[in-house]
Design a protein that fits this description.
CATH topology of the largest domain: Rossmann fold
CATH superfamily of the largest domain: Leucine Dehydrogenase, chain A, domain 1
Helix content: 40-55%
Bound molecules: nicotinamide-adenine-dinucleotide
Structural class: alpha/beta
Distance between the termini: 23 Å
Number of strands: 12
Order of helices and strands: HHEEEHEHEHHEHEEHEHEEHEHHHH
CATH class of the largest domain: Alpha Beta
Strand order of the largest sheet: 9-8-7-6-10-11-12
Number of helices: 14
Number of domains: 2
Strand content: 15-25%
């Protein structure tokens, strides 16, 4: 690994890859190629702040692989974003899009910034400058950004507008996760959460557990966590714990998710609500539940807390929430893990639908989107489960093997240029 990428999350992504490449006896020439991102750009973003001063932020775009098509991946705004973290997330996108059978490679972008510390006008200037700086790399046929931690449909709208201004005409397919008014897709905002619920229902069915007997704990109440909570609650499961960055709420009888969802949308932190007992994020992860869903940052489940988790199913809505050491502990304890590249793929699947609609200028009904999403999810889950059972391995290794194998096939077919 070259020093520029060194970061705990990138080391985790590479360690997972090495483990799986060994297990599948992957061609050694391909291993080196797939471990290193294909193309990375670091940009300086000078922004005029509202008080008249100029601050320079740093942004990244990493394209890990494009053998199967244009690269695809979210844009993250967070104070801890680094090149190495973005590279790890880009690598996971490559396996994720391949596993879901989408004609994409993997990419990711980010800016090292706390978006909540900026005014709306500063956020717009930062986003537009970022879009202008990464312009040579992105586009509907090259690399298509989408929402991730700290970015919203409004941020995607500014990105799409800046891209369109550069080329001189509207290009809705340049980004996904946009507002409906400029070519966004019905169902995209809730897609990752809906996918998380659909994958978990497949796992519950496999384990013979009914939804009525299911209790759910979710870490993170942003786009993914809040929609996951809402859809689970509507489906008839008991959501007993939720949290955001400041802490969480717990009620073993079930939380009033509808009310919490509405109030949180209005900007009220979970900590100010009285719907349940207050718990810390550490306590939340070890609550007794059927399903635990980390839906915030990476490396939340480590060797320190893996032995204390009290769930039967772990659905990884966040990217990379479980360290390699924790993974082994949970496997020994027979916790059924739906790995991130499978569990949160509903987002990129509906992003793909959005891109197809934009490119074709032909928009679908919400029922078409839900039905097609459901079909892809059931197929991906069952294929991964059958593969895991046949090879007597974990869902994570099976999912990674499937994804990596498809990417390897594309490389073999295309050959090595020049
Ligand atoms: P978001 O910014 O909308 O929400 C993040 C949530 O995490 C917020 O509620 C925040 O308060 C909480 N949080 C932040 N730091 C925390 C901490 N230390 N402990 C507990 N909670 C904390 O982000 P999102 O889009 O919901 O993304 C969440 C995760 O899902 C990320 O790992 C992201 O990569 C992954 N993901 C998102 C999408 C998508 O479509 N948005 C798709 C696939 C995967």
């Amino acid at each position: 690994m070259i020093a520029e990428f060194d970061h705990p999350t990138f080391r985790l992504a590479v360690a997972q890859f090495d483990q799986v490449a060994e297990a599948m006896n992957l061609d050694t020439n391909l291993r080196e190629r797939l471990k290193t991102p294909q193309r990375s750009l670091v940009v300086a973003l000078p922004i005029r702040m509202d008080d008249g001063t100029v601050r320079v932020f740093h942004g990244y775009r990493v394209q890990h692989d494009s053998a199967r098509g244009p690269s695809k991946g979210g844009l993250r705004y967070h104070q801890d974003v680094t090149l190495g973290e973005v590279a790890a997330l880009a690598m996971w996108m490559t396996w994720k899009t391949a596993l879901a059978g989408l004609p994409y490679g993997g990419a990711k972008g980010g800016i090292t910034v706390d978006p909540h510390a900026l005014s709306l006008a500063e956020l717009e200037r930062l986003t537009r400058r970022y879009a202008a700086e990464v312009f040579p790399l992105i586009g509907p046929d090259k690399d298509i950004p989408a929402t991730d931690i700290g970015t919203t449909p409004q941020v995607m709208a500014w990105l799409m507008d800046t891209y369109s201004q550069q080329v001189g005409f509207s290009v809705p397919g340049a980004v996904t996760g946009k507002p409906l008014a400029i070519g966004g897709s019905l169902g995209r905002e809730e897609a990752t959460g809906r996918g998380v619920v659909d994958f978990t229902i497949e796992a519950l069915r496999h384990k013979g557990i009914s939804l009525e007997d299911t209790s759910v704990v979710i870490q993170g109440f942003g786009n993914v966590g809040s929609h996951t909570a809402r859809i689970f609650s509507e489906a008839g499961a008991r959501v007993v714990g939720v949290s955001d960055v400041a802490g969480g709420l717990f009620n073993p009888k079930g939380l009033p998710i509808d009310e919490i969802f509405q109030q949180h949308r209005l900007g009220r932190p979970l900590q100010d609500m009285k719907a349940g007992d207050h718990v810390t994020n550490d306590e939340l992860l070890t609550l007794d539940c059927t399903v635990l869903i980390p839906a915030a940052l990476s490396e939340q489940i480590t060797e320190k807390n893996a032995g204390r988790l009290r769930c039967r199913i772990l659905t990884e809505a966040a990217n990379g929430p479980t360290t390699l050491e924790a993974d082994a502990i949970l496997d020994d304890r027979d916790v059924f893990i739906i790995p991130d590249i499978l569990a949160n793929s509903g987002g990129v699947i509906v992003s793909y639908f959005e891109w197809v609609q934009d490119v074709q200028r032909f928009f679908w009904q919400e029922r078409d989107i839900r039905q097609r999403l459901q079909e892809l999810i059931t197929t991906a889950f069952q294929r991964t489960l059958c593969f895991a059972e046949e090879k007597k391995t974990t869902m994570r290794i099976a999912a990674l093997m499937n994804g990596i194998d498809r990417v390897a096939q594309a490389h073999t077919a295309r050959g090595l240029y020049p």
